[in-house]
Amino acid sequence: MSRRAAEAGFRRFLDPTMEAVRREFSVGRALRGTGLGPGGHVVDRLRRNADTLERRLVEPEFDRYRERSLDQFGVLLDAVERGDSIESVESQLLAHDSYVEALDPSVTATRRAAVTEAILERLDRLGRGIEPIVERPEDDFWAATVAAMDRPEALSLVEDAFPFTGPLRSHRSCFCFEVRADPNELLDSPFLPTLPAVQIEYTSEAIRAMTRAERQVIAAVKREVEERFEASDGG
C-alpha cells in the first residue's frame, strides 16, 4: 500500500486552491462596515494599506488553514491505511479542523452538532474516495488514480470528495472568521492617536473567496482528469 499518491493528490488540490483564495480575497471588501475609528478615518487608512494588512494578518491565517488541512488529512490517511472508521478518529479530525475553530461562540449545541456532522460526512466521503488510491502501489497520484479508477469514478472523486466548502455554505451563519489587529503597528504615522487593538471580522469575504477558488480548481482538476484518461486510453 502507498499513501504517497494520495498525499500528492491532496496537495495538488489544496495548494492551487489556497493560491486561488489569496487571489480572490479582497481586504477592501473585508473591511467594509468595520468601524475602527471616528468617521471611518482609521478604516480608510487601513484600506489604503491593504497590502500591509494582507501580508501581516490575512496571509498567516491562510497559511495556518493550509497546515491544519494537511494535518487533518494525515489523520484521515492513517485511518484509511488501518481500515478504521471515521468515528474512531473523530476527535483527532475535529481537533485539526479550521471550521470547528471558526464556529461562532454563540452557536447553539444543536447547530454545532449539525456543523460537526457535515464536516465528518465530508471527511468520510474523502476517505472513501481516496481508499482505492491508497491501496495502489504507485507513488504518483495520476498513475495510481488511472490504475485504481475508471473515468467516472475519478470525476466523482474530484466533484464529491475533494470539495471542502459545503459546511460553510450550508451553515454560513454559524461561522465567524476574524483576526486581531493593532492599528498602531499597521499604520505607521506619528500623527495617528494611540488606538486599541481590535478584531477584524472577515467571514463573508472568506466564504466568498474560498467558494470561488474551490470552483475554479475543481474545474481545472476535472479537465486534467479528462486529459489523463484520454492519454491512458491512447486517445
Poorly predicted regions are 36-40
The succession of helices and strands, N to C, reads HHHHHHHHHHEHEH
In whole angstroms, how far apart are the ends?
30 Å
- Could you estimate the helical fraction of the residues in percent? 55-70%
Number of helices: 12
Compute the number of strand runs. 2
Q: How many domains comprise the coordinates? A: 1
Q: Within the largest sheet, what's the order of strands?
A: 1-2
Radius of gyration: 21 Å
Beta-strand proportion = under 5%
Mean pLDDT: 86
Computed structural class: mainly alpha
The coarse silhouette is: globular
How would a crystallographer describe the biggest sheet?
A: 2 strands, antiparallel
Task: Report on this structure.
There is one protein chain. With 235 residues, the protein is mainly alpha-helical. The protein has one domain (3-234). It contains twelve helices and two strands; from the N terminus they run ααααααααααβαβα. It has helices spanning 4-24, 27-31, 41-48, 50-82, 90-95, 98-101, 109-134, 141-148, 151-161, 166-170, 183-186, 203-232, and strands at residues 178-181, 198-201. A two-stranded antiparallel ribbon has the order 1-2. Helix 1 (4-24) packs across helix 8 and helix 4 (50-82) crosses helix 7 (109-134). It is globular, with a radius of gyration of 21 Å.
Helices and strands in order:
Elements: H1 4-24, H2 27-31, H3 41-48, H4 50-82, H5 90-95, H6 98-101, H7 109-134, H8 141-148, H9 151-161, H10 166-170, E1 178-181, H11 183-186, E2 198-201, H12 203-232
Antiparallel strand pairs: 1-2
Helix pairs in contact: 1-4, 1-8, 1-12, 4-7, 7-9, 9-12
